[in-house]
UniProtKB/TrEMBL annotation:
Pfam families registered for this protein in UniProt: Phage_holin_4_2
Full protein name: Phage holin family protein
Annotated TM spans: 7-27, 33-50, 57-81, 93-119
Keyword GTP-binding: no
Keywords from the named record: Membrane, Transmembrane, Transmembrane helix
InterPro entries: Phage_holin_4_2 (IPR007165)
Length: 122
């Protein structure tokens, strides 16, 4: 049940990023909410499996940059989620540039944190 809540919170955050950040779009599908949900699912799975390993490997450079490199790791995870959702489900999640992905990862992080704090069971 916790995973479904996390997936929905991430899907809402991806939807907010598509809506707010220019250069992040869902192309070629009439049901854009399906693409957002699939990309949210891919991002949730990546955040649970691959992201902790990358955070551990990038810990020295993250400490040197006072945590700013953590945003680059989030951007890489967004690119990976877009690649997986486009490759496996052909949803048409489009990222135009690194800058768009960088700002989208910031939006996704903030909205996910807010959503998870609202729906978290203590």
């Amino acid at each position: 049940m916790q995973f479904i809540i996390r997936w929905l919170a991430t899907a809402v955050a991806v939807g907010a990023a598509v809506w707010l950040v220019p250069g992040i779009a869902v192309l070629g599908t009439t049901e854009s909410w399906i693409a957002v949900a699939i990309t949210g699912l891919a991002l949730s799975l990546i955040d649970m499996s691959i992201k902790p390993l990358l955070q551990l490997l990038s810990l020295p450079i993250t400490c040197l940059t006072f945590g700013i490199f953590y945003l680059v790791v989030n951007t890489a995870m967004l690119y990976l989620a877009a690649w997986l959702s486009n490759g496996m489900f052909n949803v048409g999640f489009y990222i135009s540039s690194f800058g768009s992905a960088f700002f989208a990862s910031i939006v996704i992080s903030i909205v996910s944190a807010i959503m998870n704090s609202i729906v978290a069971d203590n």
